[in-house]
Model the fold of this input.
Amino acid sequence: MLSTRRKDPPLITTPVVLVAFNRPHLARRTLAAIREAAPQQLFLVADGPRPDRPDDADLCAATREVLDAVDWPCEVHRKYSEVNLGVEANVELGLDWVFTHVDEAVVFEDDCTPDPTFFPYAAELLDRYRDDDRVWQVSGNRLGVPQRFFHGDSYVFTSWASVWGWATWADRWQRHRAQFPRDHVRGPGHAGDDPVRTTPAAPLPGVLVTRGGQRHFAEAARSSDVVTHGWDKHWWLTVMSAGGLCVTPSANLVENRGFGPDATHTVSAGGSDDPAEPMAFPLRHPHDVALDVAVERELELRLNRVGGPAAKLARKVIRSPRLRRAARAAVNSAPATSAARLAARLTRRSAARASARTGPDRD
Done:
């Protein structure tokens, strides 16, 4: 029988990273969840105050006071910036630093609070796929994909996956940064936060399974808008260009609590994530290390609901928070998601038939 508890949970030896800025109330919650796992190594990455925001200095100081309250036996490493780097630089340069010290890590931003079972789940999969170059990321959030799509497995493989609590290996991150080497230095001869690639991002055929997903990532590859298409999109573009895979869990192991006006990306009024829930052990592994088309489709449909052309237009046109909540509820309703799912399947089948008709002649 599967169980969500372990009688004697192993000591967490996987290094943990906590990335923070100016939200002490969120950092406190996430650090409390990390405290339960009591990792032996903790990396703290904190950005500095923005010069044009008078409240930032006190908020950043309060956040660092929270981070300094590590009260379990632990090797703590700190990278605190005295100036404001911005979220792109804080994350990328922070992880560059982390992965000069360790070979793998679990990564949280301050608003991502894990269930205790996320830690043994991530540790087991980091160990299982350490030497499998096809796998680049282990995610802790399923982004609302219904559990029935997992058919009893603990996780599946997708072309991209949430970074609301995730894990990876140093060699994968360093491969990404070799291809995406922006240094965030502002000034002559430097690109600052603008995307910089040694070779153009080109997701391999078949890794994206809906037209909306293909359009979205094609736009991300061309765009210099680092708010709409931030560091995570560029990470996924590298993964997809290498034909890599990410792990998406069947349980929502990490909850994003950071929706609201003080967020960089999840600024929607009234937005929320599914609550964190436990993973059942022992893990049930997929039979093959291969793309799960059905779950990938679900992820891309969600991406289109949140960041597709209709969603962008709605944000420009609908100003009332009440009407935005109503529109969001309608788009995410069961009939609307079922219709989008059916349309995506029909489009994929039509494209496959067209490809077969125009393919090379067979002997």
Q: What stands out?
A: The two ends are 52 Å apart (CA to CA). The mean pLDDT is 86. The first strand starts at residue 16 and ends at 20.
